[in-house]
Amino acid sequence: MDYLAAFYHGLLVKALKANAFTFTSWEDGKRRQKAGGKVSRPPSFVGLRTSKECVRVRARPSKVGTFAVQLNLNDILDVMIEALPSDAYALLLVVNHDIYEDEDDDFACGRAFGGSRVAVVSTARYHPMLDEQQDVDRRHAWPASHCSSYMHECCLKATEAAEAAEAEAIHEPKKKEAKTQA
């Protein structure tokens, strides 16, 4: 919340009630139980419950098997557009579920519809347990100390380059004046 409040400086940022949006099962009649209560196939739909209704959200098996199920981002965004409080500037939903936007997608990290003032972001793919699978080198992940120094050095060089370009721009008209007078 502090980060969002800093990002939206000057606007009141508040969290909705913890249960304002909850995912629940959506009985589609296609799920079968195996012995022991295990589901034989992932659900085709889940429900997204708001204070007013429960809306069907498409679900599919993960294309690469990282997660059992992925939820359709567009369906979730449609629910957010309808649920946007009248006194809200925008609505951000952070979900721990893996999501996809289009059938061709392996996954999506999120989407914002600025004109509709809603955004959905998934944290599922940022789980540290996936670092090895994704070949993330944690030793060089910023802000590790040596990488912090590297970033500081990059910023310093960028600042020096910008200052040099500004100085060059100031002196350039004087050089052109001297050439035309000669």
Describe this structure in words.
The chain has 182 residues and is α/β, with parallel strands linked by helices. It has 2 domains: 2-130, no CATH class; 141-181. The chain has 3 helices and 8 strands; from the N terminus they run αββββαββββα. It has helices spanning 2-7, 73-83, 145-181, and strands at residues 22-25, 45-49, 54-61, 69-72, 91-95, 98-100, 110-113, 118-122. The strands form 2 sheets. Strands 1-2-3-4-6 form a 5-stranded mixed β-sheet. Strands 5-8-7 form a 3-stranded mixed β-sheet, with helices on one face. A hairpin with a 7-residue loop joins strand 3 and strand 4. It is elongated, with a radius of gyration of 25 Å. The mean pLDDT is 83.
Map the helices and strands.
Blueprint: H1 2-7, E1 22-25, E2 45-49, E3 54-61, E4 69-72, H2 73-83, E5 91-95, E6 98-100, E7 110-113, E8 118-122, H3 145-181
Parallel strand pairs: 4-6, 5-8
Antiparallel strand pairs: 1-2, 2-3, 3-4, 7-8
Tags for this model:
single chain, 182 residues, alpha/beta, 2 domains, 5-stranded mixed β-sheet, 3-stranded mixed β-sheet, 3 helices, 30% helix, elongated
Summarize, please.
This protein is of the alpha/beta class. It is built from three helices and eight strands.
